[in-house]
Amino acid sequence: AQLTKNKRLVKHYFRAFETREMPAALWSMLITEVTQHRDGLTAHRRELAEQLKATTPQLHSPEEPRVLCS
């Protein structure tokens, strides 16, 4: 949800810059902040995916659940 919000914000800033509603210096600063935030969110999502992968048992065959239960 935060990444989606971030993408919308970037689009909003680009529109404001293109229509000259936002000065270039402000636009540059805001885009830098939003991009850094997006990069942090992406890295956090990657870390969470790795943690989930490490804690989720991987079944290798249809027989494995039966073997594990016995």
Question: Can you describe what's shown?
Answer:
With 70 residues, this protein is mainly α. Helix content is 79%, strand content 0%. α1 packs antiparallel against α2. The radius of gyration is 21 Å and the shape is rod-shaped. The protein starts with a helix and ends with a helix.
Total count of strands: 0
Overall form? rod-shaped
Strand count, sense and barrel status of the largest sheet are: none
Mean pLDDT: 90
Q: How much is the radius of gyration in Å? A: 21 Å
Order of helices and strands: HHH
Specify the helix fraction band: over 70%
Intertermini distance: 42 Å
* Protein structure class: mainly alpha
Low-confidence blocks of residues: none
Q: So how many helices?
A: 3
Q: What is the beta-strand fraction?
A: under 5%
Features of this protein?
70 residues; mainly alpha; rod-shaped
Produce the secondary structure layout.
Layout: H1 2-18, H2 24-55, H3 64-69
In short:
The protein is an all-alpha fold and 70 residues long. The protein contains 3 helices and no strands.
